[in-house]
Design brief:
The structure holds two protein chains of two kinds.
Chain A: E1 4-7, E2 10-13, E3 19-25, E4 30-31, E5 36-37, E6 39-44, E7 51-55, E8 59-60, E9 68-73, E10 76-81, E11 90-96, E12 103-104, E13 108-112
Chain B: E1 3-7, E2 11-12, E3 18-25, E4 34-40, E5 46-51, E6 57-59, E7 67-72, E8 77-82, E9 91-98, E10 101-102, E11 106-110
Parallel strand pairs in B: 2-11
Antiparallel strand pairs in B: 1-3, 3-8, 4-5, 4-9, 5-6, 7-8, 9-10, 9-11
The chains are: A mainly beta, B mainly beta.
Amino acid sequence: DIVMTQTPSSQAVSAGEKVTMSCKSSQSLLYSENKKNYLAWYQQKPGQSPKLLISWASTRESGVPDRFIGSGSGTDFTLTISSVQAEDLAVYYCEQYYDTPLTFGSGTKLEIK
Amino acid sequence: QVQLTESGPGLVHPSETLSLTCTVSGFSLTGYSVYWVRQPSGKGLEWMGRMRYNGDTSYNSALKSRLSISRDTSKNQVFLKMNSLQTDDTGTYYCTRLGAYWGQGVMVTVSS
């Protein structure tokens, strides 16, 4: 199984600050035939279902604010929030869909100071 | 629009079988795969298994011996059955097309 490791487990920032969180996979998520990374980022707010923010490592979903930026390739990925807002309080998960079983990272909990 | 709705008992006794139904609308089960994902209370997301659009299934190896996923395309429903439930199976169970479409989740408590 592909292991997804997310760091940090939690982070507290003030509104307006930039935040980055990391996701590393135990094997490459880059499919050579189409040059796509099979990596998604989800946001889960308290009491809600996960919401897809980014797919293919860097493609923002329609309606997702452009302060959410996904980057990386192969085994190392990053989610950046360029200017954190109070409503970004949530747990953020990365997920690989390169191979079954699909696997999720353990999450990064974002807290607002 | 695409919707997925989970249903099932909120309480299951230890050693019993959990049966959940995912009713979908806005898309065909013969065109899209549906997945089950669970979340133990206060913890992260765990992929349980998949019903592919062509009827094939795949399972999380850690759950495979206890888990079965099936479907009824005429009713637009996907079913999950998991036996020998224990207290650490307590949590929220989601059906999802992954990506943008998730159900609201159903909370399952395993307790005597």
